[in-house]
Amino acid sequence: MCVAEWESDLVVPLIVDVTNPESVARAVAQAPDTTIVINNAGIPLREPIATLDEGTLRRAFEINFFGPLNITQQFAPVIAGNGGGAVVNILSVLCWVAVAPGYSAAKAALWQATNAFRVELAPQNIQVVAVHMGYVDTPMTANLDVAKISAESVATSTFDALADGEYEVLVDDTARTVRGALSGPLAGMYPQLQVHV
């Protein structure tokens, strides 16, 4: 578990186990003035899905899908009661392409839940935003030797989108490229399939 330290009196840290509904309920009770929720909890899962054991995959879904789902379900009435606000789901481009299959599957499920929440919560004046990006320089990607964008750039793009009333944030060129490729042939997303045609 990663617990950030803050030097501002304006920040009140709450430790929440997103896989535990009671823990989430305690956080909701401690934060009755909430107007924005950012679902950023996640764990990587890069093993091939064809041989992945079910317990490991279920754990990834508990954190990467059911956690944000539970957070949103429990905080939405609070946000609505405060006059509205926003729910931000950090998704990544991997919800569109199975580079890390187990992680991608959970994030793809969250993408669809985000779309559903967006429609369902709009009448309550709750803006639901999906944030997509390539690799971000965080502890989750520390061992990956790939180009990464800064967490600050993700935060800046996200809050700009919130201010502009947008529903989707394509933070970097990777996100824009992959999003654009969704309407193309499947082999464009997965070039390795071309050798089997």
What does this structure look like?
This protein is of the alpha/beta class and 197 residues long. It is built from six helices and four strands; from the N terminus they run αβαβαβαβαα. Strand 3, helix 4 and strand 4 form a beta-alpha-beta unit. Helix 1 packs parallel to helix 2. The model has no long low-confidence stretch (mean pLDDT 89). It comes from Leifsonia kafniensis. Keywords: Oxidoreductase. Belongs to the short-chain dehydrogenases/reductases (SDR) family.
Which terms summarize this structure?
single chain; 197 residues; alpha/beta; Rossmann fold; 4-stranded parallel beta sheet; 6 helices; 44% helix
Summarize the structure.
By secondary structure, this protein is an alpha/beta fold.
